Each structure stands twice: as structure tokens, then as C-alpha cells.
UniProtKB/TrEMBL annotation:
The gene is msrB. GO terms for molecular function: peptide-methionine (R)-S-oxide reductase activity. The keyword Oxidoreductase applies. The keyword Secreted does not apply. This is peptide-methionine (R)-S-oxide reductase. Its EC number is 1.8.4.12. Pfam families: SelR. Residues 26-146 form the MsrB domain. Transmembrane segments: none annotated.
Amino acid sequence: MLRWIDVLTYAKYGNPEPLRRVVLSEAEWRYRLPLVCYEVMRNRSTEPPYRNAYCRSYEPGRYHCAGCGSLLFDSATKYHAISGWPSFTQPAARSAIRYAFDDSHHMQRMEAVCNVCEGHLGHVFPDGPAPAGLRYCINSVSLEQR
């Protein structure tokens, strides 16, 4: 189980190596991803709160990266955080997510990125439920439920 100290350690000293990497040119990403997905995943934009596909969806399944198909989260770790975006307590594996300090928009946050294709997913915060206390606040367009 990951804790906030683990997230901070990964962001500061290095993230776990993924099993594979997907590296495409920006032109290839533009061709592969729908525009709204491209803006979020490659330009680090954010989709509108509460009006997204997985905000209020709690069907069983697994959530994969919309960019490369890597498994990111399981629905068993999804919960109602009232944040406007789908929220999870844990990634599917320690190496699924890459963490980076993000001080954009005059805030200090921890960015969550797909560790395989480096697509922006959202952010992780230390205000989630026990026992780990993590809240992964993820853009729906960055995910595909299967």
C-alpha cells in the first residue's frame, strides 16, 4: 500500500521503472488521441468538474490509460470524494503512476502521470480516506474503463 511519504519519495528521488515505455511524437499523439484527451494528457489541461464520464460511475472494472492502455486503477479503490473528478485511493501497481511536483496555477500539488506514456492523469493529495490517506483525483478523459 502506497502512503504519502512514498509518493513524496518517488517524486524527489525517482519513480519505479515501468515494465514498458510508449514514446510517440507530438504529431502521433495528436493523431491518436481525441482533442480533449490530447489537451489533458499532453498539455496538462483539466476537464470540467462533475461533467465527465467517470465522476459518478461506480461500475466494477479496471481503469486503463487512454493514451497507452496501461492498467492504472481498479474500481475497488474508487470512492466518492465530492471533488468533481473520479477519485481513487491506490494505483493498480506501484509502478503504474509517475509522480512529479507541480507548482502551476500558484498551487503546490503532486502531479500523477502514466508511468508508461507520461500522459497527464491528474493529481494525488494526502487527504484521502484511511488507511493510506491518498486521493488520486484523475481526469476521466485520461481513463478507459474495461
